[in-house]
Design goal:
8 helices; ten-stranded mixed β-sheet; 20 strands; 426 residues; alpha/beta; globular
């Protein structure tokens, strides 16, 4: 890898020493591994569809505090609390803890390790250059610990805002911990201006026995942004992880979900929608690892690519030899609106047990001309007909979002995206 990149990021790691107690050795090791591995390339199998050349062409500095207070979008319905991060830094004055602090332990990342230095070892390092750099440069984030039996009904919103951060990056790390039987709902949102910044976010969660975490993501970054994000989730017996994402922003965007089912009757639901306009690349990757018997997982992904847009999905399910009675299903469907659009699919099953029920399917096609004809023959104009078909196509990946206001907001963004190109010919 380019020595200038290594030198640049070495300087950033040096500047962050002591900012998060107990992490200096972790940073140093992550930086060393990053220098050895470098950023992924087109020859890196897990990154073959992601165009991250922009990361290899320059050093992204650490984003400075915003010069002015940014305008914030409205919350998507009622929320239990809102945590705002501006240019990767927690903005206490813009956040609202509501009454959440009465039931949940809330700490900024640095404060958490100040009193729990031995828990630094629990931070996920990752195994590629992007994750390793997040570990080396993590500076801020939120740690939420929901005690056993506590149920937080309304969503907890984590809003990431990037403004005036040209050629700069935010490396944020969140830690979510659910005690036995606890329930929490996280809505992560990513917005930004049109500067060429990089958001590099990681969230790790531990879901104890019979607990449930819902994790909704809306990625609406600026048009020139690079967005990389990963979720690492461990689920114990009878625990449940429900995830849904919508990706519309950024020049290059990638989200990965890595879920390990560690107890019997654990369950994972991972759904997503990606919409790629001209010049955009959206990449989604999942890896669900069934470690024990009688666990279940289900995935539904839908993507749409307009002219010179690209969407990609790689979904892997691994079933260990002792994970009998596994039930895992995966569905991916893509629409392309132009011959220059691109949709890639790579579903994988890696099964070492013999008493399982596993399946996957992947299709890529165009809007159904017969369906459009049927609708127009009943008085619906062609543009509206196409919007209706797209709404129906993506609905399967949104129907398991448990909050009406959030689900409606996601559907509205899909409608707005489609409205701008609904008059395209089939």
């Amino acid at each position: 890898m380019d020595d200038q990149l290594i030198t640049g990021y070495e300087g950033q790691v040096a500047a962050l020493r002591g900012t998060v107690p107990g992490t200096d050795d972790l940073r140093a090791q992550a930086l060393k591994d990053f220098a050895d591995k470098g950023f992924p390339t087109a020859r890196t199998e897990d990154w073959r569809y992601s165009d991250v050349r922009g990361l290899r062409q320059q050093v992204f500095g650490l984003a400075a505090p915003a010069a002015t207070v940014p305008d914030l979008p409205e919350t998507l319905g009622d929320v239990a609390a809102r945590f705002v991060f501006v240019n990767g830094r927690y903005a206490e004055e813009l956040s609202d803890l509501g009454d959440l602090w009465q039931a949940v332990q809330i700490r900024p990342l640095a404060n958490h390790f100040m009193s729990n230095a031995d828990r630094v070892a629990e931070l996920v390092r990752g195994d590629d250059g992007v994750a390793l750099l997040n570990t080396a440069l993590l500076r801020d984030g939120i740690v939420l610990s929901i005690p056993a039996g506590v149920e937080i009904d309304d969503p907890i919103e984590i809003l990431h805002v990037m403004t005036g951060a040209d050629a700069a990056a935010a490396h944020v790390r969140h830690v979510i911990e659910l005690g036995e039987g606890a329930v929490a709902n996280i809505v992560e949102r990513f917005v930004g201006d049109d500067t060429a910044y990089w958001t590099n976010a990681m969230l790790q969660a531990r879901i104890a026995e019979s607990a449930k975490l819902t994790h909704i993501r809306l990625q609406e970054e600026g048009a020139a942004a690079i967005h990389t994000a990963k979720a690492f989730v461990n689920v114990d017996a009878e625990g449940r992880y429900v995830a849904a994402s919508l990706s519309t922003g950024g020049r290059v965007a990638r989200f990965e979900a890595h879920v390990r089912l560690l107890g019997e009757e654990a369950d994972a639901v991972i759904d997503g929608v990606a919409l790629a306009a001209t010049g955009q690349s959206h990449d989604m990757r999942t890896h669900v690892s069934h470690k024990v018997p009688a666990a279940t997982s289900s995935q539904v992904f839908r993507t749409i690519a307009d002219s010179r847009g690209k969407t990609s999905f790689a979904g892997k399910v691994t079933v260990d030899k002792d994970a009998q009675k596994t039930d895992a299903v995966q569905s991916f469907k893509a629409l392309v609106f132009d011959k220059t659009a691109e949709a890639n699919a790579k579903p994988e099953l890696e099964i070492f047990a013999d008493d399982v029920k596993c399946g996957h399917g992947a299709t890529v096609g165009e809007l159904d001309a017969k369906a459009i004809f049927y609708l127009t023959s009943r008085g619906i104009d062609p543009a509206t007909a196409r919007q209706m078909l797209v709404a129906a196509f993506t609905a399967a990946a949104l129907e398991r979002v448990p909050f009406d206001a959030v689900r409606d907001a996601m559907a509205a963004r899909i409608d707005a995206w489609m409205a701008a190109r609904a008059d395209k010919s089939v």
